[in-house]
Q: What sequence folds into this?
């Protein structure tokens, strides 16, 4: 057969739908090598199959079925002895379209289900994070209230340094017995990027600063209430702005607040 006879015979449609015998399939493979234009014809048939199968995802309508019949009925038999071959092509092609349509429908349903599951999982994760944050804030609020009410913790008010941050302020609640302190830093501005607030315990004579903690979670701490260490014998507290990670000694030019302990 020449190229036109192969196209008219309906073999290519059966080849695409996988309905050929192994012998006929090998013949078509050989013909494709001999007539390169057959490859383009096969690609057009595959494209038509895909288009038709997508339209059958919810069932084959009368209009789509008529398109199938019209497409295949136009196939011209090679000779009068091969009518059965063409009807087999029609049946095989139609069955393949139905199969493809059902497959696409199932794939779409599966994809939609996965999308809904992903959306539900995302909502659950967000809800869990909100619950965890709420629990954390509640715990921190209870801790803050206990410190306010406790006689074991003494408050020290730290006004702002007029030369650096005149509107800044903070309060330190310290306990010599428990060796801990809490810093209410709500009156401090947000630290610049790459900087961190560092809290110092001071003895005045001679002036000896001791670092008791970094407020390195300032952005994430909504209450701006921090737990730090405490040392016995402190006479004042100060807060400086230091490079990220803190400093061994306070940068006095960046002293934001300072408050002395009343005798």
A:
């Amino acid at each position: 057969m020449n190229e036109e006879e192969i196209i008219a015979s309906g073999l290519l449609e059966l080849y695409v739908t996988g309905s050929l015998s192994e012998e006929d399939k090998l013949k078509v493979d050989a013909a494709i090598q001999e007539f390169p234009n057959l490859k383009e014809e096969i690609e057009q048939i595959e494209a038509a199959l895909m288009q038709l199968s997508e339209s059958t995802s919810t069932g084959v309508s009368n209009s789509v079925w008529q398109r199938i019949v019209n497409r295949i009925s136009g196939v011209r038999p090679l000779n009068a002895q091969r009518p059965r071959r063409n009807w087999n092509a029609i049946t095989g092609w139609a069955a393949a379209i139905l199969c493809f349509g059902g497959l696409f429908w199932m794939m779409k349903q599966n994809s939609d289900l996965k999308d809904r599951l992903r959306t539900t999982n995302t909502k659950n994760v967000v809800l869990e994070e909100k619950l965890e944050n709420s629990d954390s804030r509640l715990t921190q609020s209870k801790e803050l209230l206990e410190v306010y009410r406790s006689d074991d913790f003494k408050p020290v008010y730290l006004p702002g340094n007029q030369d650096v941050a005149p509107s800044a302020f903070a309060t330190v609640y310290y306990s010599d017995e428990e060796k801990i302190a809490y810093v209410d830093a709500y009156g401090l501005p947000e630290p610049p990027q790459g900087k961190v607030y560092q809290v110092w315990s001071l003895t005045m004579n001679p002036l000896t600063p001791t670092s008791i903690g970094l407020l390195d979670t300032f952005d994430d701490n909504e209450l701006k209430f921090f737990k730090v260490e405490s040392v016995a014998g402190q006479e004042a507290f100060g807060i400086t702005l230091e490079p990220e990670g803190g400093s061994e000694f306070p940068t006095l030019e960046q002293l934001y607040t300072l408050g002395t302990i009343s005798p």
In short: The longest strand covers residues 195-204. Confidence is low (pLDDT under 50) at residues 77-84. Residues 154-260 form a domain with the Immunoglobulin-like fold (CATH 2.60.40). The CA atoms of residues 196 and 216 lie 6 Å apart.
